[in-house]
Give the backbone structure.
Amino acid sequence: MTIEAGRGESRYWRDVWEYRELLYFLAWRDILVRYKQTVAGVAWAVLRPALTLAVFSVVFGRIARLPDGGVPYPLLVFAGLLPWQFVASSVADTAGSLVSNAGLLTKVYFPRLLAPVSAVAVSLLDGLVSLVLLAGLMAYYGRWPGAEAASLPLVALLAFALAIGAGVWLAALNVRYRDVRLLVPFLVQVGLYVSPVGFSSAVVPERFRLLYFLNPLVGIIDGFRYALLGAPAPDPRALGLSAFIALVLLTSGVAYFRHTERTFADVI
C-alpha cells in the first residue's frame, strides 16, 4: 500500500475498514495468548463468572440476604455480572493494548484504533460464552425472556460504546502516562462494588439515586436485567445518563486518540 501525504486524515476510516482482517488477527492472537499454558484453557471463560456468581450468591444472597426483587438471586447476579464483566474486562485489556503492541506500532503502518478495538472483541467473545451460561441458568430456573428482550440490542450497544469510549481514552493516556496501568485495576475493583452487580438498584435510597445514576453501568445493568429477566424497567434517568456518558466518552475518546496517535511510535 502506498502511503501518501495527508492520507491519515483523508482515508483513516476507509483504512480501518480495509485493515479489518488485521483486527481479526489481533483478536485471535490475544485469545491464544490469554489461555496459553493454562490448565483449564478456554474453560476459564466459564469458570471466572461461575466462581464470581458463587461468591456473590453466598455473601450477598445467603449472608447479607439482600432483596432480589422477585428474581432468583443467582439470576439477578449473573445478569448484572455479564455486562459488568464485559465492560471491566474490555477496559482493563484495552488500556494496555497499545503498549503490548509496541513492536508492531513502531514498525508498520495500520490504523492504531484497531489495537484497542481488538481487545474489546476478545472480551465480547468471553461475554458470549457467559451469555450461554446464563441461558442454561435461566433454563434451570424456568425463566425465559419476554417481549422485553427486544430492548437487549440497544442495551448491548450502550455497553459496547462505553467499553470502547473508556478503553480508547485509557489506551491513549497509557502510552504517555504509565500510571494508568496501575490506576485501572483500582478503578475496576471499586467499580464492582458501586455497580448493581450483587444487588438490585431498588435498595438505593431515593435521595442518593441521581448520584448513583452517574455510574453509567447502572442503567446498562438494569437494562440487561429488564431485557433478559423481565425485572423492573430501568429508571429513565439512569438509562439516559448511561447513554449520554457512553456517547461523550466514545466521541471524545476517539477524538483524543486520533489527535495523539501520530506520536505513539515516538513515546511508546
